[in-house]
Amino acid sequence: MPAQQSKTVAWSCLLAGVALTAALFGCSSTTPGGDTTTLRIGAIPDQNPEKLNRLYDTLSDELSDQLDVPVKYVPVSNYAAAVTAFRSGSLDLVWFGGLTGVQARLQTPGSQVLAQRDIDAEFTSVFIANGASGLKPITSSDQLVQLKGKRFAFGSESSTSGRLMPQYFMKQNGISPDDFAGGRPGFSGSHDATIAVVQSGAYEAGALNSQVWDSHVEDGRIDPEKVSEIWRTPTYADYHWVAAAKLDQRFGEGFTNRLQEALIGIEPDTERRRTILDLFGAEAFIPAADGDYVAIEAVGRELGKIR
Amino acid sequence: MPLLPGLLLLPVLLRLSLDLHSGGLNLVLQFWQAALQPSLNPLLLRSLLNAVSTTLLMAVLSWLISTGAGFILGLLCSRRVAALFGGSGWMSTWLRHLLAPFRAIHELVWGLLFLQLFGLNGWVAVLAISLPYSALMARVLADQIDNRSSSAVQALKSGGATAASTLFTAVLPETAGGLLSHSGHRLDCAVRSAVLLGVFGLGGIGTDLALSLQSLRFHEVWSGLWVLAMLMFVLDRLRRRPQLLAVVAVLSLASATSQLDLSFPQVTSPLLNMSGEQLLGALQETPWAELIGGTLLVTVAAATIAVGLPPLMLLLTLQRRSLRQLLWALMRLIPVPLTALLLLFVFQPSPVLAAVALGLHHSGVMGRVMEDDLDECSSLQAEALLQLGAGQRSAVLYGRLGPISRPYLAYGLVRLDVILRDTAVVGMVGGAGLGWQLIDALGSFHWALVLLLLLAYAALTISGEVVSGWMQTTWGCKAVEA
Fold this sequence. Notes:
The structure holds two protein chains of two kinds.
Chain A lengths: L2 H26 L10 E5 L5 H19 L3 E3 L5 H9 L5 E4 L1 H10 L4 E6 L7 E6 L21 E3 L5 H13 L13 E2 L3 H10 L4 E5 H9 L8 E6 L7 E4 L3 H5 L3 H10 L6 H10 L4 E3 L6 H9 L5
Parallel strand pairs in A: 1-2, 1-3, 6-7, 6-8
Antiparallel strand pairs in A: 3-10, 4-10, 4-11, 5-8, 5-9
Chain B lengths: L8 H11 L5 H12 L5 H36 L1 H6 L5 H15 L2 H12 L3 H25 L4 H8 L4 H40 L2 H10 L3 H21 L3 H13 L1 H4 L16 H10 L2 H30 L3 H13 L2 H11 L4 H26 L3 H8 L4 H31 L11 H10 L3 H29 L7
């Protein structure tokens, strides 16, 4: 066998060897399934997800100091993944949207709503329109029919304020998703992207989280010539913290209550706590209960997002 | 012949010019300006470095596993190896068919499925990439072994050598070279797969890119893109040096446990409690013809753009090879959802736009294949044509492009099913089809529909393979799997 060839064979055998070792090594290096002594928290990627991902230490440190247990932040970048992670026990406390929170609780018996932000009890969506679209401000919801035949953009497919509730209010007024130009709405992927695609004119109208819209307006990032608000929806309950079942068994009697108190007790009195509230765009967290989201569940079922 | 697909570019351009609106031009400018001034925020950079090592790890781990598993499966699939050990070969043939569905379903679909089964766990991405890649590797190895016949094997056998020693001293050495270069290429593919899985929430740099993109922070997006570009550059340099690759592999394995949660996944399977009634309901409520038709249309249009663009660019730029390579690298670097969003800033949404977004990304891959083919093919014909007085362009067309056109087009056919699955990511530009429906069904936890959509995908890809296999035989050439 020529030298070159034998060398190649040697390398391929080495590679195959390493590969087999990797496979075995991988299978055997299993640390015990769930680490039950650490509280694992997460959040759906909705507002400032990239910041949250980088500043997660602030929240986990705060909770860890308050509750005297180790807290770990697990980044999630997909709505459905957050729900699944909660169901499979990879996450103990998650910041969910209205729809995802209900989905998560239905799939995870024993879990419960702990808290929401001050603004979440009466949350709204805004409908926005491009200046050249000819769409006029809407004074009563039956005027939503003027959206028929327009190019329309939602945000993420599982978003409550960017898809579910806007679609619901349109359905109430006789508009279904296939009434839009092209026979279907577009999905921009996020609230910010919805503003961008409507402002640029790619889509004539869109719907998003009113909080995101308001902060864009305040920061002067909106060109009123190009894009403007045409309607604000009636209020509904949105984002909330959901805790897994059996936390009391794992962390001691009354832990779930202490967790709720710790969240509600976050006030803007230290640098770290201000950062946290700022990240979530909240003045404060307030108590919330499962019953606050009954209406969202009904809408979710009606639109087929909850089965 | 490779210029034919380019003809489709005309109606596409026409349609695009009708849909043109300049509303987002400033956003597009902002995006490209951000390329020169990526964010250097230390928090961001730390997060990106962590993320890129996670991505590399996912890629390397799944590459190693699929190389190992593919090697063993490949031997089992080979009729020649079976014959060596005194078998009849029908088992190998059957095993080969059995592996086809694993190859047919894209790693992204596997990933989204495993995510539902196992929750957030490092194995989800690794397994999702390993499954189709192992099956692909097995097929490549089996093909390589079976398509050769050498006297050495005969000599050894008649000399009384055992089957095992014949396998290791004669059969494997002849295939080793091709196999090594192929497995090097697979690592590059594995990295891009790992990035795409990240975009869909499985961690790594894809996740960071997706999050920054969601908030339209272009400076941060570019920090991520530059880090990714560096990784791809380094891996490309290492492509022809398996020794160094092995070192990289071992090193990244050493850091495996600290980066990825590789604990044993806990199976929670909602797929198991599904009734026939739900299946029937999902079957009836879904407009299958429209979905499948729309998906196929976008796929074929995207594929023609991807295949047609590189030869066209070759004729336009001729000798400026490094310029083209930069272009192809850029196309591969930018994930499809980002291309789609950028196009939306200046064009109205339409299925054509979805096809363009997909086509541009994959033209980066096709472009690289073309350049590799050109490098390996001698330029004697072109020089001869030049000597005979042909123009520069016709010399390149007939002398250089001509000889490589068959393998190039054959590879384009293989590319078709990658593009088919990628249609899932262009929901935002109105290119909705099966893929978009799958993502929405997963978000609604509508398992009956998920199952049906997966079956539809598998059926489409398998029939696609049959068609492309048939066309390859008709053209009398075999694609070099990549």
